[in-house]
Specification:
Elements: H1 2-13, E1 17-21, H2 27-35, E2 40-44, H3 59-70, E3 77-80, H4 84-87, E4 96-101, H5 107-117, E5 121-129, H6 135-144, E6 159-162
Parallel strand pairs: 1-2, 1-4, 2-3, 4-5
Antiparallel strand pairs: 5-6
Helix pairs in contact: 1-2, 5-6
């Protein structure tokens, strides 16, 4: 569901360059690349074990599959295998149409990701993220972006905020 919602946003707002923070096994990442023509997407992950991984193989296997599959997108899939806050230094400020935050769900990590990645978004672009239904995520988003649009079950709990 989240990937279809983001696809609709990408097409509605003509997104050309974005970043997904927390690629995991690539569900959202590859859906966007396959369904939004011309989109270039940074994928940021370090593929460490998490309690969330119980349904999707081990992270070493996820990493290998994502790296292999990314080769099919001829420069449109840019994998940054490094911590989010380090990867943010690789991407220029005001260069992204959107960022999708779905990595470490602790309040501190979400606050850090928002702080590091919002400057990368162009004026009129979007910060988005997954799991609004998690108290830690919701708390961080409200603290950082108080006018963000809350996610609902209908869009798989994707929250969004538009940069003025």
């Amino acid at each position: 569901m989240r990937e279809k919602y983001l696809e609709q946003m990408a097409k509605r707002h003509d997104w050309k360059v974005g970043a997904e923070i927390g690629v995991w096994y690539g569900r959202t990442f590859f859906h966007l690349l396959e369904n939004v023509p011309g989109l270039t997407l940074y994928g940021v992950d370090i593929w460490v074990h998490s309690h969330l991984n119980i349904h999707h193989k081990d992270q070493a296997q996820n990493r290998l599959e994502v790296l292999e599959r990314a080769k099919n997108y001829k420069g449109r899939a840019i994998i940054l295998e490094m911590p989010s806050l380090v990867a943010a230094h690789v991407v220029g400020d005001d260069t992204l149409d959107f960022v999708f935050i779905d990595a470490d769900h602790s309040r501190e990590a979400v606050l850090g990701d928002i702080g590091a990645w919002v400057p990368k978004i162009k004026t009129g672009g979007f910060a988005t993220g997954h799991d609004w239904d998690w108290a830690s995520v919701r708390s961080a988003v409200i603290a950082s972006l108080p006018d963000a649009t809350p996610g609902t079950g209908g869009n798989d709990w994707v929250w969004s905020w538009r940069k003025p």
